[in-house]
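Action item from last week, closing it out:
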Amino acid sequence: MNLANDAAQNENETQAKIKKELNKRLREMQIEQEKKNAVKKLMTPDAYERLMNVRVANYELYAQLLDLIIAMARNSRVTGQITEPQLRDLLSRLTFKPESKIQFRHK
């Protein structure tokens, strides 16, 4: 009988963990959807389409770009809607890496 109680308790704990993880993921999805809706209002349709393409290709870059656009909007640095060329400029700024210089020294 003690084994049955232990098994039932373990099952309840497992279900609680699963439910907690599900709620966490659901909340994350809701937050992302709210961000997408906010950003969609700030962008032209072409720019938004490019943003969604970035999302498919590189999710980390997409998340950075999304946060940057939202921060710019909060700081009133966005005037009008963001166009596709402006979005490309933001992308290039986020992905800019200075060229490494290789020097050969002869002895």
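Closing note: The helical segments are 2-42, 45-57, 59-74, 84-95.
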